[in-house]
Specification:
With about 150 residues, this protein is an all-alpha fold. It has a single domain, classed as Cytochrome Bc1 Complex, Chain D, domain 2 (Orthogonal Bundle). Helices cover about 50% and strands about 0% of the residues. It has eight helices and no strands. Helix 7 crosses helix 8. The protein is globular, with a radius of gyration of 15 Å. Bound molecules: heme C (HEC).
């Protein structure tokens, strides 16, 4: 397990859950765990909806809701709980088709791995390359793209 070494103020935030991280490439079994963990009344409906998703999207969704939704929102529209506080610029809105049209798998992979600063933007999106293996980032990319479908 790699530990996050970053000057980002989100380093701690990113590193702690990383210790509990499960590999994206690992078999399906994980999905059941997520639902068990969620434990809400929505679990059953969520389980049914999840069952129809391809594995990479499913795993991307699981990772996204743990690591990204706090800023990007569960629905990917950029209005997570940090939105409207001190976050400037606001988190990318993945439901914005015009924005997502310009995002290729490569560019999404690059900005997720190196953070928004690595693509010449602000440093408000932390670099995730030390938190996730590349197959997990592929899963995140697959899931992020679903918001604009
Ligand atoms: C602390 C809040 C925060 C967290 C957590 C966060 N992001 Fe971001 N993200 C942002 C902000 C703010 C931007 C906009 C940065 C900018 O435009 O300068 C952004 C932008 C992005 C972009 C667009 C980058 C571009 O090229 O324009 C992608 C893709 C992205 N985030 C993916 C993710 C993923 C995947 C995760 C979870 C692994 C994540 N983010 C977690 C705040 C966050």
């Amino acid at each position: 397990m790699k530990t996050k070494v970053s000057i980002s103020k989100f380093a701690l935030f990113a590193a702690i859950p990383a210790l509990m991280l499960a590999g994206c490439g690992k078999p399906q079994g994980k999905a059941g765990k997520v639902i068990a963990k969620g434990g809400s009344a929505d679990s059953l409906a969520a389980a049914e909806a999840n069952a129809n998703l391809p594995f990479d999207v499913k795993e991307g969704k699981r990772l996204f809701s743990h690591y990204c939704s706090v800023c990007h929102g569960e629905t990917g529209d950029g209005t997570g709980q940090y939105y409207g506080s001190s976050l400037q610029p606001s988190p990318a809105n993945f439901t914005d088709k015009a924005f997502m049209k310009n995002m290729t798998d490569e560019s999404l992979t690059k900005s997720i791995t190196g953070g928004s600063a690595s693509v010449g933007k602000s440093n408000m999106c932390p670099p995730w390359g030390k938190t996730f293996e590349s197959d997990e980032i592929e899963c995140l990319v697959a899931y992020v793209k679903t918001f604009s479908k």
